[in-house]
Design goal:
Blueprint: H1 2-31, H2 37-41, H3 55-76, H4 79-110, H5 112-115, H6 126-146, H7 154-179, H8 192-221, H9 228-240
């Protein structure tokens, strides 16, 4: 009983901290991390919809909402909340967290100026960049270790993820058709087939991460595995290291 109470308390604190941390980051991103008007004048940014153009901001909203929902379930334990929590985690939180984090840092390593020019350091503080591009993946991995989830039927999960990714694709092309400016400037200097390849790769990768999350959840929480605790401790050690 004491172990169960300790685990429940740690889970609640995780959800509380993640919800507050992500909500603070999203608010700061929306309220303060604004490019100057010169960026619009120079056609470096589409003059529409503010931060709602960016998948990082939208993903931050979704992630903070998820941890607020998980915290609510910790307090009230309603079955309907658990079902919704598990569906959102499987379909959106894990695939989008890993996609946003690994894609950003991969492009950053290849050519930082193409994805995150140095001048942005004065607008986006380092802590904000890491919360929205690094911590989201760390929180998702710790969530796997600390909380048991029931993955939905794969068809339901795929439909939800496909709808989100299709919406993201349409959203990008909407701004381009309206303004002839790409939301992500590095796309402006590439050929059309590179753009198609980029979006196709992002969508495929998101589905791969869905399957990875499903597999990790099954391995960590399979009922008959005697070394389940050891696996969780090992994974948590890798995350915190």
């Amino acid at each position: 009983m004491e172990r169960c109470s300790w685990a429940n308390g740690a889970r609640l604190l995780l959800h509380l901290f993640a919800a507050i941390n992500l909500a603070k980051a999203v608010y700061h991103d929306y309220r303060y991390a604004q490019l100057p008007e010169l960026a619009v004048t120079l056609r470096l940014e589409p003059p529409l919809w503010g931060m709602f153009k960016y998948i990082t901001f939208l993903g931050g909203l979704l992630q903070s909402g998820y941890y607020a929902l998980a915290l609510t379930h910790d307090l009230w334990r309603l079955p309907s909340l658990r079902n919704l929590r598990d569906y959102i985690l499987a379909t959106f939180v894990v695939p989008l967290a890993l996609t946003a984090s690994l894609t950003f840092w991969s492009l950053y390593a290849i050519d930082r100026n193409a994805i995150y020019p140095g001048l942005l350091d004065s607008i986006y503080p380092g802590w904000l960049n890491h919360v929205l591009h690094s911590y989201i993946a760390v929180y998702a991995l710790i969530e796997f270790v600390s909380t048991r989830h029931r993955y939905p039927d794969r068809s339901r999960g795929f439909v939800g993820l496909a709808a989100f990714m299709a919406g993201y694709l349409v959203w990008n092309y909407y701004f381009w058709f309206r303004t002839a400016i790409w939301v992500y400037p590095f796309l402006g200097g590439t050929d059309w087939y590179i753009q198609v390849l980029y979006f196709a790769l992002i969508i495929v990768v998101a589905f791969v991460y869905y399957l990875v999350g499903e597999h990790v959840n099954r391995v960590l929480w399979v009922k008959t595995t005697g070394d389940m605790v050891a696996k969780k401790v090992a994974l948590l050690s890798l995350v915190t290291f």
